[in-house]
Automatic annotation (TrEMBL):
It comes from Aquimarina atlantica. Keywords: Hydrolase, Protease. It holds the Pfam family ClpS. This is Clp protease ClpS. Residues 19-83 form the Adaptor protein ClpS core domain.
Amino acid sequence: MSTQEKVLEEVLEKSVDQSNNEIVLYNDDVNTFDHVIETLIYTCEHTPVQAEQCAMLVHYKGKCTVKTGAYEELVPRCSKLLDAGLSAEIV
């Protein structure tokens, strides 16, 4: 095995080991688009366009991944979404 192949193999192993979790936002019949968009901008640091696109996906598809990352990083964000009255979970 050449040095280049060994380094590439190590890089692939590291990227596989970093398991990213996702915050999934679910549709409901309670919250307005504006509330969802504002909450995503504040909580997930989305741009207004990103937040609007996620809100549309949630509305039409029933759910949307709104943030990915390490579990420890997602817990406070998911809690803020829940505190704002949105339906979300970390998967």
